[in-house]
Amino acid sequence: MSLWDPANAGAWTLTLNGTNCNTHAWFALDCHQLRPSVDRRGSSRTIPSVVGRKPRRARDDEVTEVLEVLFTGNVTTAGVAASDPQRQLQTNLRAFEAAVVDATGDANGCITATLAGSGVTYAGLVQIRKWRVGDGLTECSAALTLSIPAGRLAVTGS
């Protein structure tokens, strides 16, 4: 089993805009970090001359996560061995960019994300904030910065 084998994804699989992020051509690492863990904004209020604080409702805040995605030119997006790995790497990068990074999304620029694993499915809207591709002839890594406006992906199935 090679690094590029989707079976190495472990318990979690991620799709962005309907595109599987764990294929033979590209492989997203640490997808589990998109599991719900919410940042909250708002804090309890101090009132002069009163002991303690007055509680205030905290609200979910936008969460930003950076995923590392590994790309190879050794295979096509269909998993077939490539005859020219250098050219195929560029083709695979362009295919991912077209399907995920440059996807139109909704009116707010959001695309759907689905994270499935360990018998649970999470889904929600995300925005692509940054896309930085590293250097490499036949393989490279890229940093994909995702923003989750709702603060977390919601459980949609178990």
Short description:
The protein has one helix at 85-101; strands at residues 12-16, 19-20, 26-28, 39-41, 45-46, 53-54, 59-61, 63-72, 111-117, 120-133, 139-148, 154-157. The protein is mostly beta strands and 158 residues long.
Spell out the key features of this protein:
two-stranded antiparallel ribbon; eight-stranded antiparallel beta sheet; 158 residues; mainly beta; 11% helix; 1 helix; Elongation Factor Tu (Ef-tu), domain 3
List the helices and strands and how they pair.
Elements: E1 12-16, E2 19-20, E3 26-28, E4 39-41, E5 45-46, E6 53-54, E7 59-61, E8 63-72, H1 85-101, E9 111-117, E10 120-133, E11 139-148, E12 154-157
Antiparallel strand pairs: 1-2, 1-9, 3-8, 4-7, 5-6, 8-11, 9-10, 10-11, 10-12
Provide an overview of this structure.
By secondary structure, the protein is mainly beta. It has a single domain, classed as Elongation Factor Tu (Ef-tu), domain 3 (Beta Barrel), CATH 2.40.30. It is built from 1 helix and 12 strands, in the order ββββββββαββββ. The protein has one helix spanning 85-101, and strands at residues 12-16, 19-20, 26-28, 39-41, 45-46, 53-54, 59-61, 63-72, 111-117, 120-133, 139-148, 154-157. Strands 1, 2, 3, 8, 9, 10, 11 and 12 form an 8-stranded antiparallel β-sheet that branches. A two-stranded antiparallel sheet has the order 4-7. Strand 9 and strand 10 form a beta hairpin.
- β-strand percent reads 35-45%
Number of strands: 12
- Rg estimate, integer Å: 19 Å
Q: What is the domain tally?
A: 1
Name the helix and strand elements from N-terminus to C-terminus, one letter apiece: EEEEEEEEHEEEE
What is the overall number of helices? 1
Major beta-sheet overview: 8 strands, antiparallel
SS content category: mainly beta
Return the CATH architecture.
Answer: Beta Barrel
In whole angstroms, how far apart are the ends? 29 Å
The residue ranges in which pLDDT falls below 50 over 5 or more consecutive positions are: none
Helix content: 10-25%
Task: State the CATH topology.
Answer: Elongation Factor Tu (Ef-tu), domain 3
What characteristic shape results from the CA principal axes? Answer: elongated
Report mean pLDDT, rounded to a whole number: 86
What is the CATH top level name?
A: Mainly Beta
